[in-house]
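quick one, two chains, predict together pls
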Amino acid sequence: MSALYLDDLTPGDAWTGAPIAVEEADVVRFAREFDAQPMHIDPQAAAIGRFGGLIASGWHVAALVMRDFIANNPFGDTPLLGIGVDELRWLKPVRPGDTLIARREIVAVRRSASKPQLGTVTMRTTVTDQQGDMVMSMINLMQFPTRPM
Amino acid sequence: MSALYLDDLTPGDAWTGAPIAVEEADVVRFAREFDAQPMHIDPQAAAIGRFGGLIASGWHVAALVMRDFIANNPFGDTPLLGIGVDELRWLKPVRPGDTLIARREIVAVRRSASKPQLGTVTMRTTVTDQQGDMVMSMINLMQFPTRPM
């Protein structure tokens, strides 16, 4: 597999991931381990609760979006090393049966002043459901290698 | 179990979670599902890579911190509903064998102007390892109910 380097990226470059099917069993399994609240793990309690049914943990949605990023990686062998995330917003509850699509767009590309082999890429990720509604958005800061000399 | 409401929270209120043991099997299992890169899932490849060994997916660290928040929930029955996260930073690689501690501090408490039964809490979460080094920090925005009349 080939690789993309910092030098290959330009603000405005964008990619769309594959459909992400949100399955009830996965929603419950993730939340039992990491976010065991009734709205995420207990269909009966969730049905009479505020959301009228199970909703996915926001951290599960973020993890599913990361999985799609790896599976449909536009950068080839380049390691995807996250420095951080800004402006992460969970905008609409994600429910079992939903199908999500992530779109990623390069916002900024910066070379490191001190380390010529590295730079920083700022990427905006937006995630929509099958109705076209945005369910999550975030700004990802990633460390990225420059092309080897 | 009792519950805390927006009315009960004051900026400066802080809680420390329980020790979070980072286990290699969990690091690999999470990453195989959500972040299947060699640095997270392949001990041999990771050993000769940049970090000299396996490191946890940043999303796994965030999920472990959420699990601790639920397990050591200072808010009782109040649902912990995330609106978003700002300034999430992965500051130091987390490795199998590390033991993490999360500290949470209320930064701001705001009543909703339009919905008297709801408000927003801003919480700063910092996560340190057994050496006292900060490995992750973030600002959490949460929706919080006010005390029922």
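The two ends of chain B are 19 Å apart (CA to CA).
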